[in-house]
Specification:
Layout: H1 20-28, H2 31-43, H3 49-79, H4 90-111, H5 114-139, H6 145-165
């Protein structure tokens, strides 16, 4: 049973694209990455260790949250398409496994020393994008890949630059 009004249908095509609000919010989500990297570069050696490490933990934690969020996107895309009595196609199962693996890897990166964890998180952000280049067309949202590339570039570079300064 569909709870949506009869006049509202969900798009089911391979080129769904982000609307203006989604793009604005996505770019706003880069603020902690860019701000964190800039603060680390500006503050290293200039302030006490405790506030400096707060900034380091902030960008590291945020990067891990974003990796976990990216791992959850395929789950959300499949939820409205799946039925409990049918076996999921292989690409759905791979997407589910990938999402969990990314979340666990992000958690492990949080447990590492920040200079190493940020590098791992930067690599995970890139790995999420590379995986999504294959998954998004399978899940009907390939129109989001341009935005995802831009976000991935800025966020991963922010992690690498912050790690290089720690």
């Amino acid at each position: 049973m569909n709870d949506l009004p009869a006049t509202h249908t969900l798009p089911d095509h391979h080129h769904a694209e982000p609307d203006e609000l989604a793009r604005k919010l996505a770019y706003a989500g880069l603020i902690p990455f860019v701000g964190g990297a800039i603060f680390i570069w500006l503050l290293v050696g200039r302030i006490d260790a405790e506030p400096f490490m707060f900034v380091v933990r902030a960008i590291t934690s945020y990067a891990a949250l974003i990796v976990a969020f990216l791992g959850g996107i395929p789950w959300g895309l499949m939820m409205w398409r799946s039925t409990w009595h049918m076996e999921a196609p292989p690409h759905y199962r791979r997407a589910l496994w990938t999402g969990v693996i990314y979340s666990l890897a992000a958690w492990l990166a949080l447990l590492m020393p920040p200079h190493a964890g940020l590098v791992v998180l930067g690599v995970l952000l890139i790995a999420c994008y590379l995986s999504d280049r294959k998954r998004y067309p399978e899940l009907g949202v390939s129109g989001w890949l341009t935005l995802r590339f831009r976000l991935t570039f800025v966020s991963s570079m922010s992690c690498f630059l912050a790690a290089a300064q720690i």
